[in-house]
Design goal:
The protein is mostly beta strands. The protein has two helices and 15 strands. It has a four-stranded antiparallel β-sheet, with no helix packed on it. The chain starts with a strand and ends in a 9-residue tail after the last strand.
Length: 184
């Protein structure tokens, strides 16, 4: 199956001109007090090669598992996935994807569950096939739009915490992971 995403240098002038995509979806442009717009430096990200409907898998996360986080790993449970595409999926406080685990139930139907569900015991033995981490669209993603997820929903503590300036009403400010010990 051909990948639905590609890694690109993000160009805000191209992306914000796509149907259904607004500056809020891609907030790297800032208006100065004099009314002029300034752009942050261009950066790399995962971009949709086609429209992806809500509920569809945008990215199947593959790669090597690590014991420690790095700048490009995604935490799933106690391990950190060093994924060639997933490592370029950027953070958003209002993401268009969520990290889920694709499983097959006893009827071989695919199901998507949060990785922190903590399934153990007899229910685990009812699952068929290998669990696979995926990014699932939580809203429609248009061709050319950046793929994002919320790092604070997956990471206990980021290898490189950062200040988010996405401009969202729901902006978390400091992106550092979800472990309470990091709160100050």
């Amino acid at each position: 199956m051909e990948s639905k995403v590609e890694i690109k240098i993000i160009n805000p002038e191209v992306v914000t001109g796509l149907p259904g995509v607004t500056e809020r979806d891609f907030p790297i442009t800032k208006m100065e007090e004099d009314g002029e717009f300034t752009h942050k430096p261009l950066y790399h990200g995962a971009v949709a090669k086609q429209d992806i409907n809500q509920g569809q898998v945008a990215v199947t996360l593959t790669g090597e598992w690590r014991h420690e986080p790095s700048r490009r790993t995604i935490q799933i449970g106690e391990k950190h996935l060093d994924s060639p595409i997933g490592g370029y999926v950027n953070h958003s406080c209002e993401p268009n994807c969520a990290v889920l685990i694709k499983i097959k139930d006893m009827t071989f139907k695919e199901q998507y569950v949060p990785w922190r569900v903590g399934v153990k015991g007899t229910l685990t033995s009812m699952l068929v096939g290998d669990p696979t981490p995926v990014l699932v669209a939580v809203k429609t993603i248009f061709k050319g739009q950046e793929i994002t997820f919320n790092y604070n929903q997956t990471e206990e503590s980021l290898a490189e915490p950062f200040d988010c300036d996405c401009g969202s009403e729901n902006c978390a400010g400091k992106i550092k992971g979800w472990l309470p010990k990091w709160d100050t």
